[in-house]
Specification:
The structure holds 2 protein chains of 2 kinds. By secondary structure, chain A is α+β, with helices and mostly antiparallel strands. Chain A has 5 helices and 5 strands. In chain A, strand 1 (2-7) and strand 2 (10-15) form a beta hairpin. Chain B is of the alpha+beta class. Chain B has 3 domains: 21-226, Aldehyde oxidase/xanthine dehydrogenase, molybdopterin binding domain (Aldehyde Oxidoreductase, domain 4, 2-Layer Sandwich); 241-312 and 372-447, Aldehyde Oxidoreductase, domain 4, CATH 3.30.365.10; 318-364 and 459-544 and 561-752, Aldehyde Oxidoreductase, domain 4. Classes of the chains: A alpha+beta, B alpha+beta. The structure holds FE2/S2 (inorganic) cluster (2 copies).
């Protein structure tokens, strides 16, 4: 059964079995590999995307429930790595292997939209369900706080 | 099939006579399109090579481990061919920095390309043993310096000036108002005789302009912020199909029979078949499912009906292994090191000076964020592999055997890796992919689920240690006896070696002074697969030795920091107790990191109520590290607030990269100390996903501060050595705070309640 939704600003239709998780539609059907598979049980956050602006774990999100919704993946965040969160990430030299970072960045972007000037404790609480085996938490914490400053300077959330 | 797996052991540092044996392979001369500096570690510096967009002729003599090759083309583009793989440790930045320093170019302009899988030319391309920068440092500098010398000579000749009148900056040679770019000079330079590598003058460390610089940003990072970085699992090829394998949950079990009727009926399933186990590399075999998407393959797997032959290890459990551990340490063991008479000294010591303690560590999974995967395309003309592999050579060799083709018909593209930590040294995932791909006329991507990855890892060995010893009335160590057993790596990968060789680490060369030292070992047999896990045996031995020295300090009524300094004693080089070729431990460098960490952490200064500090130091992979941890304990939960680390790793090439590696090792070590473990039940791993194998969360991540000892010694590794000092520093602090000693990892809330 075909499902139509908005993906990174463009209307997209796929025809796969309805229970297929959004993650695999993105990766295997649409070849958008920036969204990662880490656990498949909503335990690691590597697959985080935005659905109607909210962070969602695409590995447990059936494609049928995405119908008519707005999906943003890491590839759709900016054309040129100019999103303040991306800039802050580079500035903090946060990624190591990089595998978890799409999910980290998407989680941070959704969080900062709701909480534009977070305390370090709020950052910790918001980011703690994302796993990074390379241990980049300290740099991510710094990057999220810095991104918030950049966003304030640029006149609010994007 | 017979495949021997070699992981480089910790290598001795370069010695001058090693350097003199390194010859310069050649620069291009006949075709003259590029300046090519290669290295041949053999005695002869012979082969003339030319280059016309083709790899140069290969040297005839066998070459020992080295993996770089420098090329400057007519446009001035500098390319560094590297056999090492980027797995997040930042070598795609550090290696060009080293080359650029001597070559005199902007390091950012250097292209890093993957070296062909040619063991003779590039040596062992395995990325491990924290060796990527350490082993490339001097050869890369020599390559850069030799090329620069030739380019400067070419300019000097052109202008009829003395080479000493020329200066170099950013790939431009200048003298007396004239200047020429490297691009300009390459053709001339390539015709010049190659300077003798051992005589090429290298920069003095105090003149370094790039090496050791603070503001260097890593090259690979931008692509890791926009989804464009492609890992092995992201390979997408025209016509590619996806595969998964159902393996026996029990280690060593095999398929008895299976029924694929239901699986094959699922739309999108292409084929289902059995793949055999391959013993030599411990590839398990199982039932493979090939489908048009990863998800369809996952569904089809669930629909399989398989009868397993669960094999000889089905009764094994963490309890059974533990029982065996205890039985062995209770019995006489093989004496590995014996200095003085530890037993007599201990029995003569008064009771209050004696310390006896058992320590225990579990199996640990690597749990790289990117699960194992590999893409293989078997074509008529050869086999192409896309592998996130720390050991591409091994993948190449084993894939060739599986496909029945000569090694040179297998091309391995090493992809980015979503973490390695030692797991990606193995060839099992590549071999499985090849076993499947040879039956499918399309490129096949084999993906392991997280559950596959966690339940079919090669784990860090579990181990058990009984320490006994005593201090004397002056507060010095009178005797130290260590009885150890583990499920050794050698039983899986090095049957010819002694079982203890990769299990005992620094306890082979205990840097603390005692006249009476005794080390004993016996292996515990187990069907649980194991291999190299970040920092290997140091992850266990560091915890044991640094907890025990702390216990001795308390028995002596001494401050744990001062006690360590005193027991390290005067500057000494402590030899390995068994392997005469191993580098000695320099107690002066150990003292250096201890002092730096203690000073930066404010050792001895007042702390808020309810907090305490602990300290630890260790030596592994030729590097010295020390930690001071600051903790509190609430309702049995340990909270680590701050960790201050000092490292001495010779010349710090890329300081921010070093700090990142240390932070990474600390978090990895804290996870193993406080969170994760693999337990065994019915011969299988119990923890299968991140819901049960939990990791340190951001809100549990301490503030980390890394200090680097200034040094001009050759660089040593840093990917691993900061890990062994994590757990002991934390639990030494816990003891200082609560009087409770944690001797079994990971800590449980009940241990401290
Ligand atoms: S893959 Fe979705 S949360 Fe881990
Ligand atoms: S950067 Fe490697 S898992 Fe996070």
């Amino acid at each position: 059964m075909p499902v139509t939704f908005e993906l990174n600003g463009r209307s997209t239709t796929v025809d796969v079995s309805p229970e297929t998780p959004l993650l695999w539609v993105l990766r295997d059907t649409l070849n958008l590999t920036g969204t990662k598979y880490g656990c498949g049980i909503a335990a690691c956050g590597a697959c985080t995307v935005h659905i109607d602006g909210e962070a969602a774990r695409s590995c447990v999100y059936p494609i049928s429930s995405v119908s008519a919704k707005r999906v943003t993946t890491i590839e759709g965040l900016s054309m040129d790595r100019s999103h303040p969160v991306q800039e802050a990430w580079i500035e903090a030299q946060a990624p190591q292997c990089g595998y978890c970072q799409s999910g980290q960045i998407m989680t941070a972007v959704a969080f900062l939209k709701k909480t534009p000037s977070p305390t370090p404790q709020q950052v910790d609480a918001a980011m703690s369900d994302n796993i990074c085996r390379c241990g980049t938490a300290q740099r991510i914490r710094k990057a999220v706080l810095h991104a918030s400053e950049l966003m304030q300077a640029q006149g609010g959330a994007r | 099939m017979s495949t021997t797996i070699e992981r480089p052991k910790t290598q001795p540092l370069f010695k001058t006579d090693d350097l003199s044996r390194r010859g310069l392979l050649k620069s291009a001369s006949t075709a003259g399109t590029a300046l090519l500096i290669g290295f041949n570690f053999s005695t002869a510096a012979t082969a003339q090579t030319s280059e016309n967009d083709k790899p140069a002729e290969k040297p005839k003599a066998p070459v020992s481990p080295f993996e770089s090759w420098v090329r400057i083309d007519e446009t001035g583009q500098v390319t560094l061919l590297s056999g090492r793989s980027e797995m997040g440790q930042g070598i795609s930045t550090a290696l060009p920095m080293v080359l650029a320093e001597e070559l005199g170019v902007d390091w950012r302009g250097i292209k890093v390309a993957q070296a062909p899988n040619d063991a003779r030319l590039f040596g062992n391309q395995g990325t491990g043993g924290s060796g990527s920068v350490a082993e490339s440092f001097t050869p890369l500098r020599q390559a850069g310096a030799a090329a620069r010398l030739m380019l400067v000579s070419a300019a000097a000749r052109r202008w009829s000036v003395d080479p000493s009148a020329c200066s170099v900056k950013n790939g431009v040679v200048s003298a007396g108002g004239r200047s020429a770019t490297y691009a300009d000079l390459v053709a001339d330079a390539a015709k010049l005789p190659v300077p003798d590598l051992k005589k090429v003058p290298l920069k003095k460390p105090e003149d370094f302009e790039i090496i050791g610089k603070e503001s260097i940003q890593r090259k690979d990072i931008p692509s890791k912020t926009d989804g464009s970085a492609r890992f092995g699992i992201d390979v997408r090829l025209p016509g590619m199909v996806y595969a998964m394998v159902e393996r026996c949950p029990t280690f060593g079990g095999r398929v008895a029979s299976f029924d694929a009727t239901k699986a094959k009926a699922i739309p999108g399933v292409i084929d289902v078949f059995e793949i055999p186990a391959i013993e030599d590399i411990h590839s398990w075999g199982g039932v493979a499912v090939v489908a048009n998407s990863t998800y369809t393959a996952m569904q089809a797997r669930k629909a399989l009906k398989i009868e397993w032959n669960s094999g000889p290890h089905a009764a094994e459990s963490s309890e059974s292994i533990r029982k065996e551990f205890r039985r062995l340490v209770d019995s006489p063991m093989k004496v590995v090191v014996n200095q003085g008479d530890a037993e007599a000294a201990i029995s003569s010591a008064p009771q209050e000076y004696k310390v006896e303690a058992d320590y225990e560590l579990p199996f640990q999974a690597h749990a790289t964020m990117e699960p194992m995967n590999c893409t293989v395309h078997v074509r008529k003309d050869g086999v192409e592999v896309w592998a996130p592999a720390q050991g591409p050579e091994l993948t190449q060799g084993t894939v060739a055997q599986v496909c029945g083709v000569p090694v040179d018909k297998v091309k391995v593209n090493t992809t980015l890796m979503g973490g390695g930590f030692g797991r990606r040294y193995q060839a099992d995932f590549g071999v499985e992919a090849a076993q499947i791909a040879k039956r499918i006329p399309h490129p096949v991507q084999l993906v392991w689920s997280r559950e596959d990855d966690m339940t079919h890892d090669f784990y860090r060995p579990a181990s058990y240690h009984r320490l006994s010893g005593a201090v004397d009335s002056q507060g010095n160590i009178l005797a130290w006896k260590h009885k150890s057993t583990s499920t050794p790596i050698s039983e899986w990968w090095d049957k010819a070696g002694t079982p203890e060789s990769s299990e005992l680490g620094l306890s082979f060369q205990n840097p603390y002074m005692t006249k009476n030292y005794r080390l004993e070992y016996l292996p515990t047999a187990s069907g649980v697969p194991r291999a190299w896990w970040r920092s290997v045996e140091a992850s266990s031995i560091g915890f044991v030795m640094e907890s025990y020295i702390d216990e001795l300090a308390h028995a002596a009524g001494a401050d744990p920091y001062e006690f360590r300094l005193r027991q390290l004693g005067r500057a000494r080089k402590v030899p390995h107790g068994v392997e005469k070729n191993e580098a000695p431990v320099d107690t002066d460098r150990m003292r250096g990191v201890l002092e730096l960490a203690a000073q930066k952490a404010g050792w001895g200064s007042a702390l808020p109520q309810g907090r305490a500090r602990g300290i630890a130091c260790h030596y592994s992979f030729h590097s010295y590290t020390a930690n001071v941890a600051e903790v509190s304990v609430e309702k049995g939960q340990v909270r680590v607030h701050r960790i201050v680390t000092a490292v001495d790793i010779g010349v710090p090439v890329h300081p921010d990269g070093i700090r990142a590696q240390v932070e990474s090792a600390i978090v990895y070590g804290l996870t193993a100390a406080m969170k994760s473990q693999i337990t065994i039940k019915n011969g299988a791993a119990v923890e299968a996903n991140f819901n049960r194998f939990t990791t340190l969360r951001m809100d549990e991540t301490p503030e980390m501060e890394v200090h680097i000892v200034p040094s001009i010694l050759p660089p040593t590794g840093i990917g691993e050595p900061a890990l062994p000092v994590v757990a002991p520093a934390v639990f030494n602090a816990v003891f200082a705070l609560t009087g409770k000693r944690v001797r079994r990892l990971p800590v449980m809330a009940t241990d401290l309640a």
